[in-house]
Hints:
The protein has helices at 6-9, 13-60, 76-83, 115-118, 164-178, 181-199, 201-211, 231-278, 282-313, 327-337, 339-344, 363-379, 435-445, 483-489; strands spanning 63-66, 69-72, 90-96, 101-104, 125-132, 135-144, 155-162, 323-326, 348-353, 358-361, 386-393, 397-404, 450-454, 461-468. The chain is α+β, with helices and mostly antiparallel strands and 495 residues long. It folds into 3 domains: 15-178, Beta-Lactamase (2-Layer Sandwich); 229-313, Helix Hairpins (Orthogonal Bundle); 323-468, Heat Shock Protein 90. A hairpin with a 3-residue loop joins strand 11 (386-393) and strand 12. Helix 2 runs antiparallel to helix 5, helix 8 (231-278) packs antiparallel against helix 9 and helix 12 runs antiparallel to helix 13. The protein is rod-shaped, with a radius of gyration of 51 Å.
Amino acid sequence: MSTPSSAETERSLFGEILDWMLAPLLFVWPLSIAFTHYFANNVANYPYDQALREHVAAIARQVKLVGGKPVLTLPASARALLRADETDSVYFHVVTQEGKLLAGDKDLPMPVASRQEDSALSGDIYLRDADYNGQDLRMAYTYLADAQLPREKWIVVEVAETTEKRTQLANKIVASVILPQFIIIPLAVMLVWFGLSRGLRPLTRLRQTIETREPADLSPIATRRVPEELEPLVEAFNAMLERMKKNVEAQQRFVADAAHQMRTPLTGLKTQAQLAIRETDPEALRHALRQIATGVDRAGRLVNQLLTLARTEGGELAPQQHEPLDLALLIRDVVADWVVPAIEKGIDLGYESDGPAMISGNPFLLCELAKNLIDNALRYTPAGGHVTCRILNTGVTVMLEVEDDGIGISEEHAELVFERFFRVNDAGPEGSGLGLAIVQEIAMQHGSHATLRPNPHGRGAVARVVFVAWQPPPPPPPEPDDFSELYRQSPPIGA
C-alpha cells in the first residue's frame, strides 16, 4: 500500500497564505524596477530637452534673411557658451537644406523631414535621437524659412548633446526609488509574517480548546469569540458532535436496555437448567427441556429486536438511499410469510389492496416495520380472531393499516405503547415491548408517524402508518432531431 507523501499530508495554512502574499510581491518587484527606469528616463530628459530647445531658439534668433539669403551673426561668446559643458559634448550647426554649412559642425547628421514637419510653421522645434561618431545624441532642431522660399532653401538650426547627464540623473532617480525598497520589502515581509501570526491566532485558540477537552465531553464549542470566517467550521463541528452524542447515547441506552432485558430470560434459563439437572423422571425432564427451548426462542427474539432497534435508532441503515418501491407488493409478501404462524394460532390473516402503491423507502426497514405490526396483532388476538393488512392509496398518500379484533388498546396507552419496553399490565402474551418502538423509529426515518388506536368498528385495535406517495419525475422536454424539426417549431422570420 502506498503512503501519501509529506507534501500531501503536511500542509501549513500559514505557509500557503504567506506564499500567496509574497509571490505576487516578488513578481511585481522586477516590473516596478522596469517602470521606474522608464519613467526616470522621461523625467531626466525633460529639463535637458528644454535646455536644448532654448539653445536652438537662441541660435535661430541670430539668423536673418537678407534678400532671400541667410546671414548668421553668432558672437564668439555664444559659441563658447555652447561648448561649455563639463560632462557632455555639445554640437550644433546651421545649414541649408541643400547642405550648405553656415556655422557649426559639418558632419552632424541632418534630420529627415516628416510630413508633420513639412506642414509645420517656421519656428517649431523638434526632438530626435541620433548617433554621431559612436555617441548617442539627443538633438533639437528647427526650420527657418520664408513663405516665398522653396523647401530646399529652408535653413536648419540643430543643437545636439551626448546623454551622459541624462543617464546619471535617471540612475540617481532609480537609485533613490529602488534602494529604499531593499529596506521596505524585508520590513513588509516581517509585517506580513506578524500580521498572519496575529490573524491565525483564533485557529490556535480553537485548536487548544479542542485539545484540552475531556474525551467524553461532546458538548458544543462556544462561538462567542470565534471569528466570522470560522463560524461555519465550528457550527459544522458542533453538528458532528451532536450526531456523535446521539449515537453514543443510543449505544449507551442499547447496552443498558440489553443488559436489563437479557437478565430475566437468562435467569429463567438457568433456573430451568438447574431443575432439569435434578429431575430423574423422563417426562418431567422433557418438560424442563421444552421450557428451556421456549426460553431460548424468547431470548433469541429479544436479541434480534434489540439489534434491529440499535441499527435503526443509531442510524446505521438511515444513510442507505431510499428507492421507489411498490408497498402493496412488499406487504403482500410479508403477509404470505406470516400465514403459517397465523394458522397455527387459529387466526384468520388477510390482505387487502386496490392496486400498486408506490412510495420511496428502504425495503429492508419497511419489511421489519410490517413484520412487527403483524406480530403485535397476532400476539394480542385470540384464536378464532381476524387480522387484516390493507393498503389504501389516495394518489397523494399511501396508508398501511393493520386491523385486529384482539384485546384492543385504551386511549390512555395508545401513545405509550411506542416507548421502548412498555407493556400493558393486563396484556396476556409475553413480549419484549420493543416491536412498536421499532415500528415508530422506522416510520420516522420515512417521514411518517405510526399510530395505534381502538378499532372504531368494534373490538380490537388498528395500527396505521401513512407514507407520502412517490411521484415520478417529469420527462425532459423533447429535443429536435435535426434542423428541419427546429425550423418547424420556430416561427417564420417577420411573423
